[in-house]
Every structure is written in structure tokens, then in C-alpha cells.
Write a structure and sequence with these properties.
Strand content: under 5%
Radius of gyration: 18 Å
Mean pLDDT: 84
Order of helices and strands: HHHHHHHHHH
Low-confidence stretches: 1-23, 185-193
Largest sheet: none
Helix content: 55-70%
Number of domains: 2
Length: 217
């Protein structure tokens, strides 16, 4: 089987079976880990998608590599929120790294799907998006103050552009958009930071970006 060759499927059967029936937790570290996995799943799909420039493909692959390198640390932090979650599985993570290096997108996607089952992303308070006028107005202010400077005019000449959040809102499923906003700033290590937004603000932003840019409405 695909996963048996990648991560040793039999050894992982028990932890995944337990995690698949557990409720998604609300702790910040647990949510950040789960959101990171959702984003890596989406990035893996983009990695093998059509029309991706080689420069951006290298940047996306580097981002995935960085995410995989952080997984053990993120999992250890998340287990403070959810002690029942399994400890980092080195065999699984090493297998994912090998799949990424070998450009085996199907193996990478399958392994990340297992991780997503084990560490489920809790969207309570984020989805469904808050479409109330007050929430949308607040989201517009957050965008102008924190996001517009980088995302409204992406620099596509760098490996990891800060892509338009309006375009992401149109194309990405709400769950992926929620995960990306939970993680917050992504890109160079110098700009990465913890997300300062409340769940209610993120929920409003999801609705705001899914509506499209103001000049499109």
C-alpha cells in the first residue's frame, strides 16, 4: 500500500483510529498545528497544479519543507492543549520529507491527509463566516491596516509572493481560507509572526474576502 511504504502503516493504525473519533480542540497551539496541516495540504495540491511558474514552485516547495521541519515542534506544543493527541511520528514526518524531495505529490498528499485526521482543524468561531455588516466593516479596516500593504499588489518576482487575499477568497474553500488566516503572516522568517486576530475578526475576514475587492462589488 502507498502509506505502508511511506510511513509504515501498521504502526500508525492505532493512533489514527483514536484521533479520528476525537473532537477537534479549541487550544491555540492545537488549532495552529491543525491549520498548518490544512495549508500544507492546499500547498501540495497547488504544487502539482497547472500554470505554476518554476520560481513560485520552488518557493512553494521551500514553504512546505519549512512546515514539515516545524511539525515536531508544533505537535509537541499542541499536545499541551490536547494530551491525548499522539506524539510526533518521526517515520511519518521523514517519509513526508522524502516525498517532497522526490516530487511525489501523491505520497505527500496521502501522508498529510493522515495527519489531518490525527490533528483535526477546529473551525468553531470561524465558520460559517460572519457576514453581518458590522463584521464586514471591521474586516475591511483590518485589511487596510494589516494586509493591504503586502497583499493588494503582490510582488510576483519573488519565490513566495504575498498573493491577493481577495483572489484567495474567491478560489479557496472556506476551510482553507480560515486555516491560512489562523496561521497569519506566511513568507520569509523575518516577517512570520503569531496571529494577532480574534476568531470573530478572522470570521469577518473570511466573509470579506469571499465577497471580493470593494471595487468589484
Amino acid at each position: 500500500m502507498l502509506m505502508a511504504g511511506l510511513i509504515g502503516g501498521a504502526a500508525l493504525a492505532a493512533p489514527f483510529a483514536v484521533a479520528s473519533v476525537s473532537a477537534a480542540p479549541r487550544g491555540e497551539d492545537a488549532r495552529r498545528l491543525a491549520a498548518e496541516i490544512v495549508v500544507m495540504q492546499a500547498d501540495t495540491a497547488h504544487l502539482s497544479g497547472p500554470g505554476l511558474q518554476e520560481l513560485h514552485r520552488r518557493g512553494l516547495k521551500a514553504r512546505l519543507g519549512g512546515g514539515l521541519a516545524l511539525l515536531p515542534l508544533l505537535i509537541r506544543a499542541a499536545r499541551r492543549d490536547v494530551p491525548s493527541w499522539p506524539a510526533p511520528d518521526r517515520g511519518l514526518i521523514d517519509g513526508l520529507r522524502r516525498a517532497l524531495e522526490a516530487d511525489k505529490a501523491a505520497d505527500l498528499a496521502a501522508g498529510l491527509a493522515r495527519l489531518a485526521e490525527t490533528y483535526p482543524f477546529n473551525t468553531a468561531g470561524l465558520l460559517p463566516p460572519d457576514t453581518r455588516p458590522r463584521a464586514l466593516a471591521a474586516a475591511g479596516a483590518v485589511h487596510e491596516n494589516y494586509c493591504a500593504g503586502c497583499h493588494d499588489e503582490p510582488d510576483t518576482e519573488v519565490p513566495r509572493p504575498a498573493w491577493s487575499l481577495y483572489e484567495l477568497g474567491r478560489k479557496a474553500p472556506p476551510r482553507e481560507l480560515a486555516a491560512r488566516l489562523v496561521i497569519g503572516v506566511r513568507g520569509q522568517n523575518l516577517t512570520a509572526m503569531d496571529n494577532p486576530l480574534k476568531d470573530s475578526e478572522i470570521s469577518g475576514l473570511i466573509a470579506y474576502y469571499r465577497r471580493g475587492a470593494p471595487d468589484e462589488n
